[in-house]
Amino acid sequence: MQRLTKIALLLFTSVFAVENVVARSIGGEDVACATLRLRYPSFTFLPGSAGYTYETTTPYWSATVYSTPKCVFVPQNAQHVSFAITTFTLTLSKFAVRGGGHMPIPGYNGINDSGVLLSSSNLTTLSLAKDKSTVSVGPGNRWRDVYAYLKPSGLAAVGGRVGHVGVPGLLLGGGISFYSSQYGFASDNVVKYQCVLATGLIIEATATNAYSDLFWALRGGGNSFCIVTRFDLKTIASSNVWVGIAQFDQSQAAGYLDGVYNFGKYGAPADPKAAIIPTILAFPSANLTIYVAAKFYDSLEDSPSAFKNFTAPKLAPVVDSYSLQSISDYVASTDPLQPLGLRQEFRTLSSVVDREAVQLTHDIFIAGVASKLSSVANLQASITFQPVTKDFLLHSSKTGGNPQGVDVSKAPFFWMVENWTWTDPNDDARVRAAADSITAEINSALAANTFGAKYLYMNDAGPGQPVFQSYPTENLQRLKAIRTKYDPLKVYTNLLPGGWKVANA
Ligand SMILES: Cc1cc2nc3c(=O)[nH]c(=O)nc-3n(C[C@H](O)[C@H](O)[C@H](O)COP(=O)(O)OP(=O)(O)OC[C@H]3O[C@@H](n4cnc5c(N)ncnc54)[C@H](O)[C@@H]3O)c2cc1C
Ligand SMILES: *[C@@H]1O[C@H](CO)[C@@H](O)[C@H](O)[C@H]1NC(C)=O
Ligand SMILES: *[C@@H]1O[C@H](CO)[C@@H](O)[C@H](O)[C@H]1NC(C)=O
Ligand SMILES: *[C@@H]1O[C@H](CO)[C@@H](O)[C@H](O)[C@H]1NC(C)=O
Ligand SMILES: *[C@@H]1O[C@H](CO)[C@@H](O)[C@H](O)[C@H]1NC(C)=O
Ligand SMILES: *[C@@H]1O[C@H](CO)[C@@H](O)[C@H](O)[C@H]1NC(C)=O
């Protein structure tokens, strides 16, 4: 009876108020924090406490997204998450959800004192199935934790290429892995999601159970559907791999860009075990550009040909750390290359694989950064050409498909990510304006030469980029229908305002 009353109250207050939440004047977030603190005092942190300070800064990649929530709740299990969601809904409190904290968009993984921060820090389950075919991963883990856990079994998972990136955000947007030519998006390798619906119900979604529609939506639909409390991932046999980073200097630019194009066009499609992350780093105040390529080969035997366009005699690196090691050791040793606590911004672009497209993208990017940002202190800018093969996309469609629905017929592609890194908050507006104008200039040059491609990868996108609009229209319609079915009151759209929202696309 008590439960019925509670549910009735929940429905009543929600129906009449969720849509009008902006107009309210009393602070539901105060009531939510008081409720959480009463029930779970040791997991609810108020401003001024060490736990609060830690949770609102340390786990984040970019200092631009530190936030000042009314309180921070650190659930220890799915039941605690369910209690929190019910509390937020009853009190009409806004909230934010943070996994690894790597999305550098203000308000997407944090919230100011109009709401509560729900932290994944303690949802750190890691457990290998008896038959070792799957691993259960809590959303508080980073990819380095997953690789380190699987290493003693000679296994890996299709996941991130940088160790401190969070598991949940990467998987909810898709996930580009060193293993993607062989196994598709990281999210194509999730076999089960445990998650908390807007009603507070804890459910499990698989490709074949009653929640198969939700399962499909979670493969690339972001945080509009439920709060994921566990991902069950397929494991892959991969003990040691050939991996490391080669660096080239400015005088080798032309040969490097030839190598990038040829790898995207021929090298990657010919051998799905091979991957590269080609990144061009510009330091405009020093008039310096360096050319870097992380090379990866998923085998104990190195390939004689996969990287011949990036090795002597074709293109001799200045330094090269390519060697046989576990993915776990590689991500541990490269983590310091991506320090936390700087100011960061991304933009994403995509193109077909064409030599001239690579050149014009590179030239506009380097010139734009030099002309607009040379005087920004400590500015570093980079552009990365991520090669995406037909095999990558075919694997995705063979495993039940995903909302991204990338058009295989036009593959291969480059999915590019531009990054800007700086230190002074007074430069934020200037860097963001430059990011927008450089991106617009590259996009119009690509379009004018019919090099453009449609898809925009959520996890590399900047604020306002039309991510869901780049998915096939029918997939977006299906996402919207699934969202409406599981969360008709828009809890995960209006009370959880941060993130890419299908309802608003
Ligand atoms: C240095 C670096 C390296 C990267 N490398 C790669 C790479 O190799 N491959 C790749 O594909 N991407 C990569 N990315 C991009 C990365 O996938 C995204 O930044 C991603 O959002 C990070 O996930 P997170 O959990 O750390 O993010 P968060 O910022 O914590 O979360 C991202 C979004 O997911 C939501 N969310 C988080 N947890 C949950 C949950 N449990 N349930 C529901 N919603 C949730 C949040 O509300 C937020 O909107 C990289 C990013 C960086 C900064
Ligand atoms: C806090 O968030 C609300 C809602 O998003 C917004 O209107 C307000 O400007 C924010 N305040 C600050 C100080 O950032
Ligand atoms: C939970 O997370 C906090 C940080 O918020 C950390 O200090 C603590 O050690 C974690 N506890 C467990 C049991 O993992
Ligand atoms: C290397 O580049 C040549 C063109 O110079 C191309 O034919 C070849 O396929 C490329 N190989 C790889 C592995 O990228
Ligand atoms: C910047 O470097 C390029 C290539 O090394 C050189 O041609 C150019 O003159 C340099 N510009 C300045 C202003 O130093
Ligand atoms: C740029 O951002 C992307 C995130 O999507 C990440 O994979 C990459 O490591 C970043 N590169 C640099 C040089 O910061």
From TrEMBL:
Q: Name one GO molecular function term.
A: oxidoreductase activity
Domain of life, per lineage: Eukaryota
* Record-given protein name: FAD binding domain-containing protein
- Give the organism the record lists: Paraphoma chrysanthemicola
Q: Which family does it belong to?
A: Belongs to the oxygen-dependent FAD-linked oxidoreductase family.
Query: Domain FAD-binding PCMH-type: where?
Result: 65-238
Signal peptide positions on this chain? 1-23
Swiss-Prot/TrEMBL keywords: FAD, Flavoprotein, Oxidoreductase, Signal
Q: What InterPro entries is this protein classified in? A: FAD-bd_PCMH (IPR016166), FAD-bd_PCMH-like_sf (IPR036318), FAD-bd_PCMH_sub1 (IPR016167), FAD-bd_PCMH_sub2 (IPR016169), FAD-linked_Oxidoreductase (IPR050416), Oxid_FAD_bind_N (IPR006094)
The record, for Pfam families, names:
FAD_binding_4
